[in-house]
Design a protein that fits this description.
flat; mainly alpha; 149 residues; 85% helix
């Protein structure tokens, strides 16, 4: 599975790892704070899970689109975009009926963690390579062009 993710985009595994960490830390903080826990927790989890699925879907659509001519690639990319927007709208409608406006706003706020993950991914990549090297492994060099090392 990890090789499939790396073949789509070398930074995708790191991004998904960061998103998973944001999900765990965010849910813990939501339950510790304890204000309107169920709707905020559901919205936050929905937003993070949507952004993880969206990242994978976007990478796979782009990977397949490069094998088409210009019109086919544009059509494939736009088709993938509309699928992601449709899933987003359905998720927001379900969250509205399940948890109200609070759940919707929590999911939208959670989707911004994708931007944060993208900004700190190079640091995470260097950290993971350092851990791999200390563990006796040489480390994966396929990701170096994305981390700036």
């Amino acid at each position: 599975m990890m090789e499939r993710l790396r073949s789509l985009n070398p930074v995708l595994p790191d991004m998904l790892l960061l998103q998973t960490l944001f999900l765990a830390v965010g849910e813990i903080l939501i339950f510790v704070i304890g204000i309107n826990v169920t709707s905020i927790a559901a919205g936050y989890a929905g937003g993070i899970i949507y952004s993880m699925i969206s990242m994978y879907h976007m990478a796979s659509v782009i990977d397949k689109a490069v094998y088409y001519e210009h019109k086919g690639a544009v059509a494939r990319t736009l088709g993938g975009f509309f699928i992601r927007v449709l899933v987003l709208l359905i998720m927001e409608i379900v969250l509205y009926y399940a948890g109200g406006v609070t759940a919707m706003f929590a999911s939208i706020a959670a989707m911004f963690t994708t931007k944060v993950s993208a900004y700190i991914q190079p640091v995470t990549n260097k950290f993971l390579h350092k851990i791999k090297r200390k563990g006796g492994k040489q480390g994966d060099q396929s990701n170096d062009e994305c981390s700036g090392t």
